[in-house]
């Protein structure tokens, strides 16, 4: 099964040294992109105004960010070149670097649950205990029928209503309230539309049957049942090479991980690094990244104390990283079929199966965490950032694209990254 995809290798050595137009050609070869798809990614006009105007209100134009590709990813034995939209330097390089460490054999192992989302029906003045439970038990077949009747495509795809349960809570002043959770398998959709409309329908039915007033009817952005578990391994060896790591370095990474597991202040920063990678893929693929952010942080604090999402341990001659994360992602609906660059991004990823897509996204998060933790546990992140900062300064003072690497090299040699040093070096380069 994997042979065909192994032929599609995401290794692409030297990719970072290519020009932007050579890079997009390499990605086009990897994914079999046509001219229009290539244009959607490479041209500054990737999103036509007519489409942009219909995406939001009061639209005046388009806003651009860089789109880049992380290389080296292998997840469950399949290779992926991963589109990432992000303004922060070093994120794409870090993801590619860690993906290389994690690509041995089948690469990062990922398992996802069924894509079950939760819809909430709120009862501000709840009926007596047992009434909602009783109604759900007696009418569950009818609820399923009524909720599913307007979603034939979801049902045909194998999704649909999967059950309901009652939760009883008290508000901050001690007043009781109740919530009915409806569970919906949304297949390849993010699910907000289907779940919101089913929650509204369920509210009407439950109110009729119980006589209780319904408050809000809305999906929950804590998709606790829709999760991906990823595990990545790096072989430990004193001789460094592809997929190898010095045991001392691995021990420092475990130490850093334990710090993040123990301290919420560190955990937030570590999780932010994970989201650097995840959000970048979500932006490139037109996802609701706000929903994913909200869910990830709520999940990190699910048992009452905010914790690191990923954990690293030295086990059996390997550094092993594990992460469990809720991911409500969609490959149908929203702008996934409308935005030309998003469509091209999905073609490059090579899948429109939402669970497989979520597994790749989680793998990127884990890789990002490894790269950041490794850098922090060794030389720190500032050295790498110096080069990137110098590049930004060189561009700001007007160096042409072909002059930028020369100005950066000269600035680093002088250990100066300020605008004055950049101007001096640019002047020197132009004279010579
Ligand atoms: C910076 O955007 C992300 C890091 O702070 C993540 C981390 O500390 O693990 C480097």
Overview of the structural elements:
This protein is α+β, with helices and mostly antiparallel strands and 432 residues long. The protein folds into 3 domains: 15-113 and 226-380, 3-hydroxy-3-methylglutaryl-coenzyme A Reductase, Chain A, domain 2, CATH 3.90.770; 116-219, Alpha-Beta Plaits (2-Layer Sandwich); 383-431, Helicase, Ruva Protein, domain 3. Helix content is 47%, strand content 19%. The chain has helices at 3-7, 20-31, 35-42, 49-53, 91-101, 131-148, 152-156, 192-210, 247-262, 264-284, 289-300, 340-349, 354-377, 382-396, 404-413, 419-431; strands spanning 67-75, 78-85, 109-112, 116-123, 160-170, 176-185, 217-219, 227-236, 244-245, 310-315, 318-326. Strands 3, 8, 9, 10 and 11 form a 5-stranded mixed sheet that branches. The protein has a 4-stranded antiparallel sheet with strand order 5-6-4-7. It has a two-stranded antiparallel sheet with strand order 1-2. β10 and β11 (318-326) form a beta hairpin. The radius of gyration is 25 Å and the shape is globular. The termini are far apart. Mean pLDDT is 94; it is low at 1-6. Bound molecules: (R)-mevalonate. (R)-mevalonate binds at residues 88, 269-270, 272-273, 276, 372-373, 376, 381.
């Amino acid at each position: 099964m994997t042979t065909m995809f192994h032929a599609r290798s995401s290794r692409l050595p030297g990719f970072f040294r290519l020009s932007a137009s050579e890079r997009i050609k390499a990605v086009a070869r990897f994914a079999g992109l046509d001219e229009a798809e290539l244009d959607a990614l490479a041209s500054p006009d990737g999103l036509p105004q007519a489409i942009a105007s219909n995406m939001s209100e009061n639209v005046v134009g388009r806003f651009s960010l860089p789109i880049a590709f992380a290389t080296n990813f292998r997840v469950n034995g399949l290779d992926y070149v991963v589109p990432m939209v992000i303004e922060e330097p070093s994120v794409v390089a870090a993801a590619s670097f860690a993906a290389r460490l994690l690509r041995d054999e089948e690469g990062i192992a990922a398992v996802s649950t069924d894509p079950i989302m939760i819809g909430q029906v709120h009862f501000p003045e709840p009926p007596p205990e047992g009434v909602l439970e009783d109604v759900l038990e007696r009418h569950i077949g009818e609820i399923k029928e009524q909720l599913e009747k307007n979603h034939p495509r979801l049902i045909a795809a194998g999704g649909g209503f999967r059950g309901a349960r009652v939760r009883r809570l008290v508000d901050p002043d001690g007043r009781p309230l109740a919530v009915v959770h409806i569970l919906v398998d949304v297949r390849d959709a993010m699910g907000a539309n289907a779940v919101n409309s089913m929650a509204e329908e369920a509210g009407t039915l439950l109110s009729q049957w119980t006589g209780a007033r319904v408050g809000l009817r809305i999906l929950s952005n804590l998709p606790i049942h829709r999760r991906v578990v990823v595990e990545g391994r790096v072989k430990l060896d004193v001789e460094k090479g592809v997929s190898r790591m010095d045991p001392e370095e691995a021990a420092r990474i475990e130490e850093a991980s334990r710090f993040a597991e123990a301290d919420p202040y560190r955990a937030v920063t570590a999780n932010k690094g994970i989201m650097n990678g995840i959000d970048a893929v979500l932006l490139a693929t037109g996802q609701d990244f706000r929903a994913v952010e909200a869910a990830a942080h709520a999940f990190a604090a699910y048992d009452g104390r905010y914790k690191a999402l990923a954990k690293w341990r030295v086990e059996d001659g390997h550094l092993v990283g594990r992460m469990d994360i809720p991911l409500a992602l969609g490959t149908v609906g929203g702008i996934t079929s409308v935005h030309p660059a998003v469509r091209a991004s999905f073609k490059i990823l090579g899948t429109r199966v939402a669970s497989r897509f979520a597994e790749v996204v989680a793998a990127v998060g884990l890789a990002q965490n490894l790269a950041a933790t490794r850098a922090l546990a060794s030389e720190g992140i500032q050295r790498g950032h110096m080069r990137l900062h110098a590049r930004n300064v060189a561009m700001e003072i007007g160096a042409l694209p072909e002059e930028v690497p020369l100005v950066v090299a000269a600035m680093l040699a002088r250990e100066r990254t300020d605008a004055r040093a950049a101007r001096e070096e640019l002047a020197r380069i132009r004279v010579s």
